[in-house]
Design a protein that fits this description.
single chain, 220 residues, alpha+beta, seven-stranded antiparallel sheet, 7 strands
Length: 220
């Protein structure tokens, strides 16, 4: 038999105030993705949170103030397919920037990201390449990390170092504009993931361990 519990008017008002404060806090919070790492199940995110709320100053006058802090958010949900596709678009840039042999044609010409992405998957030079994360915390460039199967099940770790989206010298990345577009797309998908866009069948948490690290390249 169902049981009901009666609360006082004061308790009800307290609960309503707490709910309103929680809603205000969420509504007044903006996030910026800084770093994304692919874990064993979900994603490991490093984010910047900017919370804007009304606070009373020393004179008791309310004023709008913004507080910013950095946070690490290991999440235990399988990423949506759209995020995985966005990550795959970084593979061509990873092997070009790391000067892997797969990024050159038989004449030694560097293939463009579009050429690399247009191969059928079974014949693609990218088939044995996986992006495991990216770091855009600098605000003007990106670091892409990943791995490539090189022999049997041996894995070669790859990292681009910081790549500027716009050239500062003669060594600038010639596909920087394309990389910027893809990076923005991946960042947007990471934000959507943080806000609840998971794999459709992954709404329930799966065995998650806090020791999960973003640099885990053990599986393809």
């Amino acid at each position: 038999m169902a049981q009901t519990k009666t609360i006082s008017k004061e308790e009800l008002e307290e609960k309503k105030a707490a709910a309103a404060e929680s809603y205000e806090l969420k509504a007044g919070t903006q996030i910026r993705i800084l770093k994304v790492g692919v874990g064993k199940v979900g994603l490991n995110l490093e984010i910047e949170k900017a919370v804007t709320r009304m606070f009373a100053n020393a004179e008791g006058v309310e004023e709008l103030r913004t507080f910013t802090n950095l946070a690490k958010e290991p999440m235990a949900f399988l990423p949506h397919h759209d995020f995985n596709l966005a990550l795959e678009l970084l593979r061509s840039h990873l092997i070009i920037l790391c000067e892997q042999k797969e990024s050159f044609d038989i004449h030694g010409r560097v293939l463009s990201p579009q050429e690399l992405d247009n191969f059928e998957e079974k014949d693609s030079p990218l088939a044995k390449v996986k992006v495991t994360g990216f770091d855009i915390s600098s605000g003007y460039g990106i670091i892409i990390t990943g791995a490539k199967i090189i022999r049997g099940k041996q894995v070669l770790s790859l990292s681009t170092g910081l790549v500027h989206f716009e050239g500062f010298d003669e060594d600038f990345y010639e596909f920087g504009d394309e990389l910027l577009h893809v990076a923005k797309h991946a960042m947007k998908e990471a934000e959507l993931y943080y806000n609840g866009k998971y794999m459709p069948d992954a709404q329930m948490k799966i065995g998650f361990q806090e020791e999960d690290h973003e640099d885990d390249n053990s599986t393809f």
